[in-house]
Automatic annotation (TrEMBL):
Gene3D superfamilies: Aldolase class I
Protein name: DhnA family fructose-bisphosphate aldolase class Ia
SUPFAM superfamilies: Aldolase (SSF51569)
Biased composition (Gly residues): 7-18
UniProt feature, compositional bias: Low complexity: 30-42
Superkingdom of origin: Bacteria
Region Disordered, residue ranges: 1-56
Domain Cgl0159-like: 89-345
InterPro entries tied to this protein: Aldolase_TIM, Cgl0159_dom
Record-annotated membrane-spanning stretches: none
Length: 353
């Protein structure tokens, strides 16, 4: 199967041939991914004019899911893996686990991530760009990408706790409704990610903290990396949940996350840039665990995007920072140019290498 629907999904494993046809991500129909990347590159391999995203044949995916659901597991078993870190020691991961928490908005576009064919096309394009190491998502999305052949030689990170639905009264109850450690191990995926939001006034945060620690234990027992995304959070008088990005709060969240479980050997941190990016050096001094930056929703205005890139640039040079995990800012840039947004992030990582 290709993103353009060129392979029939009429039965057996025919619908999953894309999963084993290339040594790179195989979403792009027609030319090989390597050829597609070369044709898109600008001078000296730099960013090119807007690159159209590949179409995704949803009917083809649905036929495979309905007639041959085992094809997903078969594609996972055949998938070619790679080390978590390549020779550069840096990671660029595209995140797409937001929909499972009901978080579909990007900027003022409330349902931006609601069109699954569009999201898959954007992911296929992002994964085909040079320097993109992998993807973070929930099972529904990763299963589709397996069938599309998009995960060859990519780091695949399973999102573990999506129970804290955006805007719900129970939003801080981040239960483990996604991948379990045993699922990540069984499927041959490379890492897991968990969200840890703590409100000191909410007794339920203790349950979240304990369940996160047990997940860290289970991942460490399987020698699988787990990326912990910690926040100190609070409710506004109107009831909205906000994350505190002050230097003190982010430092405290890092200290708490670093101490989870019986071993920190396989724990990574996924951290936001503080309100004042100049605070990042002393904030990250709170732990020796390797960290990746959280991209977040950086806004649609060109000035906001430039400011976010400068924040990333400064923090990427810090000694514990090993990369960037970004989703909406790369997949849904205001100008629609996914390739250019991804290439900009890749260039920032190259600068810091």
């Amino acid at each position: 199967m290709s993103a353009s629907g060129g392979t029939s999904a009429g039965g057996g494993a025919a619908g999953t041939r894309g999963a084993g046809r290339s040594e790179d991500a195989g979403c792009i129909g027609g030319a090989s991914p390597a050829d597609a990347r070369a044709s898109r590159a600008g001078p000296a391999g730099g960013p090119s004019p807007t690159v159209p995203q590949p179409p995704v044949d949803i009917a083809d995916l649905v036929r495979v899911r309905a007639r041959n659901p085992e094809a997903i597991g078969e594609a996972a078993a055949r998938r070619r893996r790679r080390p978590l870190l390549n020779d550069t020691g840096r990671l660029l991961i595209v995140a797409a686990d937001h929909p499972a928490r009901g978080a579909l908005a990007v900027g003022d576009r409330e349902l931006a991530m609601a069109d699954r064919a569009d999201l898959l096309g954007r992911l296929c394009l992002a994964l085909s760009r040079p320097g993109v190491d992998g993807v973070l998502a929930t099972a529904d999305i990763l299963d589709d990408l397996l069938l599309l052949g998009a995960l060859e030689n990519k780091v695949v990170m399973g999102s573990m706790n999506r129970g804290g639905l955006r805007g719900a009264r129970f939003e801080l109850d981040d239960r483990f409704t996604g991948y379990r450690p045993e699922d990540i191990d069984r499927l041959g995926f490379d890492a897991g990610k968990l969200l840890l939001r703590l409100d000191y006034t909410d007794p339920g945060s203790l349950t979240t903290l304990e369940s996160a620690a047990r997940a860290v234990d289970a991942m460490a027992a399987r020698r699988l990396p787990v990326f912990v995304e910690p926040f100190i959070s609070r409710r506004t008088p109107a009831g909205a949940l906000v994350n505190d990005l002050s230097a003190e709060a982010v430092t405290r969240s890092i200290a708490i996350a670093s101490g989870l479980g019986g071993s920190s050997a396989y724990t990574w941190l996924k951290v936001p840039v503080t309100e004042d990016p100049r605070d990042m050096a002393r904030v990250l001094a709170a732990s020796t665990l390797p960290a990746v930056l959280l991209g977040g929703d950086i806004g649609d205005a060109p000035a906001d995007r430039r400011a976010a890139h400068e924040k990333w640039r400064g923090a990427l040079h810090l000694p514990t920072v090993r990369g960037l995990v970004a989703g909406r800012s790369l997949l849904y840039p205001a100008d629609g140019d996914v390739a250019a947004a991804v290439d900009t992030a890749t260039a920032l990582l190259r600068e810091a290498a």
